[in-house]
Amino acid sequence: MVQITIEDITEIFAIRKRAAMKKYQLLLIKLVIGIAIVIGVWWIVKCECINIKSLTPASIRDYIRSFGNMAAFVYIIAYVLNTISIVPPIAPLSLAAGLAFGALWGAVYLMVAALIGTSATFMISRFFGRGPVEKFLKGRFKDLDEKLQSNGFVMVLFFRIVPLVPYEVLNYVSGLSKIKFKDYFFATLLGLVPGVIIAAFFGGSLGEIKSFKDIFAPKFLISTGLMAMIIAVPVIYQIMKKKKHKAHA
């Protein structure tokens, strides 16, 4: 027969108290960050510090270049913050890499920024979101969660190459799943290579347009075709998937 002493009961209550304190501390941290984000977004909109309509690749290029030797560092920080915040759209910043630094260095800086940004969103999502997800599931959809864990590399690589899921959404959803960070990171690294190279190449070719006739330059036409191909990939995939489904029906 197991005997429970007063000391045991006291220890149990102490453990529960510490667990409750940690829970409330984490909740408070989340609340503070949430309030800070809301206030920050409200302030940006209220003071009209950023005009979303003016965020074109050319305007971003000129702004980045104004930092001189610090331009690359500023670009990477801006891209990371943009990735974490989700808004405004990431596309103008991606094209601005080629515009501001040329195709080669633009691709390098864009890749570095993308890897840091996607890794940061993954970590934020996992730290602040994984606990509630596990509590919500309570054994439900366990098979799906396990597949995400065991096939994480393939799944993330697929969605990076075939962007059926928005760029930022994939970052946060991956953090909420059981995908290992190692699989997520290397799948992202490989999956982003084609898009990064094409975006930097296209951005660089945009910077060379000085007159209307430059639109028909071979470099710009090739880069435009490659960009169109990247955009068309998910559409083509969906069409092929529907045809395959009808064939089996």
Can you describe this structure?
Helix 4 runs parallel beside helix 7. It is flat, with a radius of gyration of 23 Å. The chain has two domains: 1-49; 56-244, no CATH class. It is an all-alpha fold. The chain has helices at residues 6-47, 57-65, 71-85, 91-137, 142-150, 152-161, 167-176, 181-206, 218-248. The longest helix has 47 residues, at 91-137.
Features:
single chain; 249 residues; mainly alpha; 2 domains; 9 helices
Précis, in short:
The protein has 249 residues and is an all-alpha fold. 80% of the residues lie in helices and 0% in strands.
Q: Helices, strands, pairings?
A:
Blueprint: H1 6-47, H2 57-65, H3 71-85, H4 91-137, H5 142-150, H6 152-161, H7 167-176, H8 181-206, H9 218-248
Helix pairs in contact: 2-4, 3-4, 4-7, 4-8, 6-8, 8-9
How many extended strands?
Answer: 0
Structural class: mainly alpha
Question: What number is the mean pLDDT?
Answer: 76
Distance between the termini: 64 Å
Tally of structural domains: 2
